[in-house]
Amino acid sequence: MAERGERIMRFGVAVFVITVIGAGAAGARETSPERKALQRYCTGDLVTFCDGMAPDSPEVQACFEKNMSKLSPGCQKAIKRYNRTRNRG
Which end of the chain has fewer surrounding CB within 10 Å, N or C? Predict the structure, then answer.
């Protein structure tokens, strides 16, 4: 039973981390479709490849960059789309 609770807790942390990835954006961009796509498509990859990292750390971004080729196609696409949008604004 403790294992299930730990998984639920890690999932919650993962969702938080995905939310923090876009924290540099302000105002309306915080609820952008690109940020929502990160949350939707990258949460599982975050738990798989970057588990245990501090949610607001640069290590999470570095982890995604390091593991980009291993990430799910949906997560890869969401990250690329998010980065394109962030670089424009």
Answer: N
